[in-house]
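User: tokens in, sequence out, please.
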């Protein structure tokens, strides 16, 4: 009699193909926020740069250009699985200063504090997802091919 579990069941959960597809979908979904944000910075550069300067960022134009390059290049790396691990690590590191500077809910009040509180924790969660891409099981991409076949642990009896 076959045993069913969420991890490995008759519906295909936990199969190598399903796991690989889920990892690809996860990378795609994570990449979209960065690609879209980078494209927004590109097409609305003046307003984004003015907003960064208003937050007290010195050399705002330089940092906005740097941000849009990191977001687009590393976002595309995640999307296409080309050096996905390196892209995920760079984006996770990138999120640290961005989150601390632009989502400092402790400096805000009222509704703005609430909005920034949730944006802060959203970025923390995204960084967690990026770390799973970078260091999680079967973190594969074109730039980091595994040396041997992926091993799927046996289900305990």
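Assistant: Sequence out:
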């Amino acid at each position: 009699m076959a045993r069913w579990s969420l991890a490995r069941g008759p519906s295909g959960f936990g199969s190598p193909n399903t796991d690989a597809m889920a990892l690809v979908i996860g990378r795609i979904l994570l990449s979209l926020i960065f690609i879209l944000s980078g494209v927004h910075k590109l097409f609305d550069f003046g307003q984004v740069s003015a907003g960064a300067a208003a937050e007290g960022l010195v050399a705002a134009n330089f940092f906005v250009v740097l941000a849009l390059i990191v977001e687009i290049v590393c976002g595309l790396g995640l999307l296409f699985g080309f050096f996905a691990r390196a892209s995920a690590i760079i984006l996770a590191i990138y999120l640290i200063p961005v989150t601390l500077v632009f989502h400092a809910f402790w400096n805000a009040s009222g509704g703005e504090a609430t909005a920034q509180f949730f944006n802060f924790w959203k970025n923390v969660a995204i960084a967690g997802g990026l770390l799973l891409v970078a260091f999680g099981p079967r973190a594969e991409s074109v730039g980091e091919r595994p040396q041997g076949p992926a091993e799927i642990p046996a289900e305990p009896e």
